[in-house]
Amino acid sequence: MSSNKTENKKNPYFIFKPKVLEKNYKEFEKLSQKYLEKYVISYSVKTNSFDNVIEILDRLGSSFEVASLNEIELVNKIIKNNQINLSNDRQGALINKNKIDLSKNHDININNKLTDNRLIVFNGPCKTEDELKIAIDNKFLINADSLSEINKIIKILEGKKFDIGLRVSLEESKFGFQLEMLEETINYCKKNNLNVICLSFHSGTKLNINDYKKFIENIDKIISYFKNNVNLKYIDLGGGFPDSYQLKNLGVNLKDYFKLMDKLKKFNLTIILEPGRVLVSDAFDLITKVNVIKQNFGKNYAILDAGINILSKIALANYKFSKIENIDNINKDIYVNDIVNQTREINSQLSMRSSSSKNLTTNVKDKKEYVLAGPLLFKNDILGKFFGNLKENDLIKIENVGAYCYNLAWEISYKKPKIFMGE
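RE: above sequence
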């Protein structure tokens, strides 16, 4: 996933745009500041766990939501590296300013504690005892998902007090506690020295504004009912926010969702948000090549070197397809994952697509509809449709692929694409 070597770019490959990620996070944070008095933004690591994504969000001040040991270790590694780099930067500044003798002791300490004043939220229905031990040692906010999990926590603590959250399921699913079990579960926790300080909910993915309004209204009723029975500090609303493409399709803005949360401010609790898709979807593009043009059963097919092995249907994403024009230098050597040296040329060349139409010699009337299909030996390996002029070896840019696509990509017949840094 990362390399310091100079390599040729081989299709397909991702382009990560860190400036887009930073813009998305700052916009989300600005809305949180405006509409929520107390809040925590915990990025959903499962959405895209590319190292550079976690590193940038950590530097921006994000907390994190994790769901496995792999994600815990990844976040731990990156937070520690950022702490070391920050300490080294401060040390360098002090040396230059005060000419400190490095052979002597100085007051710069590297805090290797995993959370380091961040709220690490630990979710998931299948937490192991080893994972729970790490979470307890580092004072994660554990949103317990089952009575079995609660009993594991009780066993690990051996009678010690601990603060936990409970995942509440508002519809039939494998997650959390159904509402009818919640009061009994809270009382069971109290008897076993567990303080329930958070009720955690999840709206589902990409809810429209009316459904999200009902989601918030349900939570309002639940918190109102239980507020005198439990000493809550947090309401965890999860994620599920639509990405920018879906927001346009729905005819709403992200702030419309935040306005609905105003109903919960009366409880004077900290609102935890777990954004994923809304932050990273449009921060990644996929570059793929047309390897075969064919006609079959009255349809035009463009067979690409990327299919559902990369753009999984369970990612529930809205992709945008465009043909790349005038990009002869796209395959020049660049450094993989090197933000400083990496190619502003990639995005500038991609943007030339819109200005190159005057050079096209093909008549608009000759444009065709193509079924964009992947390379796999599966009938359902279909990505979408494209209207235009295509020929073999053309490059296609697929936008809005930052959520789940890389994490869910499977290495069947082909390796995972590399990620190159754009702007």
